[in-house]
Amino acid sequence: MTRPAARIALAFVVVIALSLAASARTQQFRGGVDVVTLDVSVTQGNVPVPGLTSKDFIVTDNGVRQSVDAVLAGALPLDLTLVVDTSGSVEHMKDELKRQVRLAAGLLKPQDRIRLLTFSWVATQVFDLQPASGDLPLDRFTAGGATSLNDALAAALMRIRPAGRGELSVVFTDGRDTVSSMSMPMLEELARRSDVPLHVYIVRTPEDVAEDARFGRPDLGPITRLAESTGGRLDSILADNHITVALARVLDDYRTSYTLRFTATGVARTGWHELAVKLDRPGEFVVRARKGYFGG
Q1: Digit-coded pLDDT (tens) for 35-46
Q2: Quick check: helix, strand or coil at residue 124?
Q3: Taking 50 as the threshold, does the pLDDT of residue 230 lie above it?
Q4: In this structure, are residues 202 and 239 in contact, taking their beta carbons and an 8 Å threshold?
Q5: What is residue 161's predicted lDDT score, i.e. its pLDDT?
Q6: Could you tell me if residue 27 is inside a domain?
């Protein structure tokens, strides 16, 4: 590989995924599992619910209620990973995508950081986390080739979240995967061991609509479930300033959501922990959070 610092080798992704699928005792991606960090979005009638405190949340870990601390997520500095499809279908948009990435960085706060992954034949780290206010090194941004969507999703999830910072990954894709080595079951297992909220946007163009008419729409059910398992979600967006428009939505949601922390109490330390979050107040609320974590 000519750019070892930027290239995420497919062999590494596959080895990690196979190891995760083979044993629950595999190396964890979490920095520690006694203190659990949980990002929670709360809406009522599609409107964020402000002013909540730790007393408003009921969090259970494997059915055992936990004592939580809550902080507004927007108060934390954010580490954002953008994941952009640069396969042959968007080769003609390369300069436009670079422009949108620069504009997207402008939506972040001075204390926030951004990194960029792209994917075609392989998943490539164009640049690592850096201050959003800096000059983005986009010289490695290229386009053309097939689509390794699953491998790129795996690369986005393989992050250890630093203490005291927020974390988001936002992915832009047409939803089709053609060359990944990572299978969906491997990816689902990886997502269960990651604490990175994953938001996936399906970008639609007239060419996509024509391709759907010929080959049928891709099955988005597995990616939808994957995103939701991390506390994120899947949505569709038109290919017109889509990176900046979608990121503005995600950031609005993030900055009005909550980060909960608790020390797991009354449950076994190892194995899979099922999480449930609800509000301890009357009313109909939509609460979105990741579904669980692996202890070790």
Answers
A1: 899 999 999 998
A2: strand
A3: yes
A4: no
A5: 87
A6: no
Report how far apart, in Å, the C-alpha atoms of 202 and of each of 171, 192, 235 are: 8, 22, 6
Cα 135 to its chain centre, rounded Å, is 24
204's tokens? 């639609």
If we measure between CA atoms, which residue out of 237, 229, 85 comes closest to residue 151? 85
The pair of structure tokens assigned to 10 is 């497919």
Q: pLDDT tens, 135-171?
A: 999 988 888 889 999 999 999 999 888 888 999 999 9
Copy the structure tokens of residue 239.
Answer: 């290919």
CA 28 to chain centre: 17
Same domain, 212 and 117: yes
Amino acid at 46: N
| Tokens representing residue 18 in the block | 């196979």
What residue type is assigned to position 220 of the chain?
L
One-letter amino acid identity for 175? G
CA angle 195/218/103 to nearest 5° reads 55
Lowest mean pLDDT segment, chosen from 29-33, 191-195, 198-202 = 29-33
For residue 3, is it within any domain?
no
Compute the chain's Rg from CA coordinates: 19
Domain, as residue range, for 150: 10-18+79-254
